[in-house]
Write a structure and sequence with these properties.
Blueprint (H helix, E strand, L loop, with lengths): L13 E7 L6 H4 L2 H8 L3 E7 L12 E2 L9 E2 L1 H12 L7 E11 L2 H8 L3 E5 L8 H7 L2 E4 L9 H11 L11 H5 L18 E2 L2 E2 L9 H15 L2 H25 L22 E3 L17
Parallel strand pairs: 1-2, 1-6, 5-6, 5-7
Antiparallel strand pairs: 2-10, 3-4, 8-9
Bound molecules: S-adenosylmethionine.
The site of S-adenosylmethionine has 20 residues, from strand 5.
Length: 298
Amino acid sequence: MTPQGDVGSRPPGLRFDVLTLFPEIFQGYLTQSLLKQALDGGLVSINLWNIRDWAAGKHHSVDDRPFGGGPGMVIMPGPVYDAVEAIQADAAEPGQLVMLTPAGQRLNQALVQELAGQRRLLLLCGRYEGFDERIRLGLKPREVSIGDFVCNGGEVPAMVVIDTVIRYVPGVLGDPESVAEESHSEEGRLEYPQYTRPRVFRGMSVPDVLLGGNHEAIARWRREQSEKRSRPDQANQDSAVTQKGGVDREEQASDAGGGGFRPQGQGRQAGDAAVPDRRLGGGPPADSGRDEGASPGL
Ligand code: SAM
């Protein structure tokens, strides 16, 4: 088990393990901007695992046609169970398993914050027509959707989860106030309008209040603008949908039973598939400026 990158000398604040059939999709994302700096600084670590490494047989198949007919292919439970169990056992803490699925709880800032409270998140990315239902029933993941639409795979949704969650890891943002003040820090609340140089652009001027140096007046203007923009009604609707979705899914799970599974984080057996070496994290200190928290000297 040799890491692909240097994992760093101190334990990371948050460890992600991404289970995917297409680990290469993450390469560009992991080498840019805030996330790169968080990885380099050892604040976050990300391990990429290819589910296919746990597939049996000559062809390492991970999917098969759906029973009952229908289009496309479905991801089989065997390789996913083996991968999840082996990866959970790769550290003392099994972590929270998150399944990316359009049927999951819709991601919002409250859920992001909740996920950020974990020390280890395993992000399970689907492809094709999605997962065999027994993966959901047996492994009991936290099911998360990034919105009411269908992506081709769970990789982009996993990046959304990583991108949003790391903002709460101490040290990742240049100014910790950023998360306290920004849009959705309260349900429905949207940030005030921001301006930078030039003072006049194509006939549109920066509001005078922002140029006057009166901090009280600026704070008042921002509060008012934020209130004007905010969408309290939308927030209430969203939380109603989320709550209903959550209850329905719970009932469905208990109705369906789901015998024969090993509970999460337990029951690893001798002979379980080995853990492959696909990791990223740590490394030399960041060399470029942060893209957060810098303010122009107006
Ligand atoms: N047949 C599935 C359905 O109708 O629900 C859609 C499968 S989708 C093409 C393939 C994979 O993409 C899913 O298993 C899931 O991991 C991921 N995915 C697609 N849309 C998503 C969303 N809105 N949120 C989270 N994951 C999503």
